[in-house]
Amino acid sequence: MIARRMSLIDSSGIRKVFDLARTMKDPVNLSIGQPDFDVPEAVKQAAIESIKAGRNRYTVTQGIPELHASVRQLIKAGRGIEPEDVLITSGVSGGLVLAFLALVDDGDEVLIPDPYFVMYKHLANLTGGRPRFIDTYPDFKLRKEALRAAITPRTKMLVINSPCNPTGVTYSREELEGVAEVAREHDLLVLSDEIYDCFCYRPEYPSMASLYPKTLLMGGFSKSHAMTGWRLGYAAGPGEIIREMTKLQQYSFVCAPSFAQYAGVTALAAGIGNARDEYRAKRDMIYNGLKDDFDVQKPDGAFYIFPKTPWGTDQEFVEEAIKNNVLVIPGSVFSERATHFRISYAATDDTLKRGIDILNRLARSRK
Ligand code: PLP
Asked: What is the pLDDT of residues 10-31, one digit of tens each?
């Protein structure tokens, strides 16, 4: 009864963790992929007002003109470019679904630096393509030599995600220039998932879209404004691709939620206050707290850190962490390797401190 393509995807890795987690009382939860603050008050008000004013119907497929203008302004200010076209999507997830459907043919190879955000792999498989992973351990940088070696005549596109979920690693401008150099050699399309651009702890955020025109840029509101449940994002880039994605949106998502689009205009005008500084301080706290007992890279962005397990496989270590009341995610959920685990530090300082103490105790317990 069920289509064959469904056998290509599974959710077992994360399901097992959450099954175990159900038994936990008052867990130290370091697994959550969204900020620990709520949607800013002004943004909530804008959503409520737009519902009360009766702006509850379908919007145009491509998204309301006001939000288009705000997104274009954001991209111009942050990246210095004017994309050919923009589409407002139902979250970055919605944009990714449309992009993969519009671009990937049977047998096409999609280059994905490993570790990766898990949707890329599943979407490549679902759309008949083949994920081709570029191993970036141990420092999680994408080197141009590794990229060049992974390109074949079947390569369709490269997906990059900087700052990265799950590693927090953020490519420097020089590293992105290296990637752009190889992409140019092969006229390669780059899908750049920049959903964590607001949480970059370098002095400036280097974006692939500024350096290489054949970039399909995706961004959103889930992380910057904690609007995860409102389902709002955008795609910007080559007109030919955005037009096909818009056509597909007509027959799938139809439009992004209308109230969220109106609130999105307010969100972009409001910015993110001092959230970046607060999360930078949390990044310092978790990194400094773990670096003596764990082999760990200092992340430059997002709110994740991806240490190597001090002993055992990722599942073994995570199961032991859960028995000790800390909820983290095994690295193999995001990787072809089973050697690391993901911590989300989008949590209160008290939760982080408790988590650091328990994890260090676990690391020392078998040294
Ligand atoms: N891309 C990355 C790298 C993410 O980490 C996430 C969410 O965790 C998404 C996309 C999905 O975001 P959205 O809520 O906008 O669909």
From this structure: 876 667 777 777 878 889 999 9
Tokens of 248: 């597909």
User: Quick check: bond before 138 cis, omega within 30?
Assistant: yes
Q: Whose CA is nearest to atom 5 of ligand 1?
A: 165
Which atom belonging to ligand 1 lies closest to the Cα atom of 221?
15
Residues 65 and 130 in one domain: yes
Q: Whose CA is closest to atom 12 on ligand 1? A: 92
Number of domains in the chain: 2
Q: Count other C-beta atoms under 10 Å from residue 25's C-beta.
A: 5
First to last CA, the chain: 51
Same domain, 101 and 226: yes
pLDDT of 134-176, one tens digit each? 999 999 999 999 999 999 999 999 999 999 999 999 999 999 9
Instruction: Give distance in angstroms: CA of 292 to centre of ligand 1.
Output: 31
Residue 245 sits in a domain whose CATH number is 3.40.640.10
Specify if 45 maps to a domain. no
- In this structure, the answer to whether residues 266 and 282 fall within a common structural domain is no
> Cα of 218 to ligand 1 centre, how many Å?
10
Closest CA to 28 of 296, 364, 360, 365: 360
Domain around 28: 4-39+274-364
